[in-house]
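User: Predict the structure for this protein chain, please.
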Amino acid sequence: MASTALISVLCQDRVGLVAAVTGRLFDLGGNLGDTTFAVLGGGAEFTSICTLPAGVDLAAVEADLRGLPELAEANVAVRPFGMAPVHGPSGKVTHRITVSGGDRPGLIARLCEVFVQFKANIVRLNAQQVPGAAGTRYSVTFDVWIPRENAASCLATVDNTAGELGLTCGWEKPA
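Assistant: Here is the predicted structure, written as structure tokens:
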């Protein structure tokens, strides 16, 4: 019987990381499910739910990944994933919301509290400092699932909260 693993890699960012990891997992018979990759400062993080063929030892997969030259000195972990490998309805993105402007302590916490208030689920969050000619700008993008009946009120409250913090806010419905 196939096994489902959570594969996590944290290392220095470099060209070819994703190709090396995904290529090796393919060679081992792995099938990637939900997968994320992000550059975090000078580092990089790769996380994936991967279905592996029956009989493939997770410790051997971890050792194999550690042997890739692109993962020299990386933090690699391969462990069983005991939760459902496919997300439910609240894992579907209904809105992409972007808030940006000057960095404010507590910014992400304040906005996340709004989502809780309207029973919205954050599916993905990406925050980054963006250097520019006018200085560094902070940008946060939330991919969220918002119950249809709460969408208008939730979006208005997020916009008001961003405005109170002196930030701009925009949103779209992904295709």
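The radius of gyration is 19 Å.
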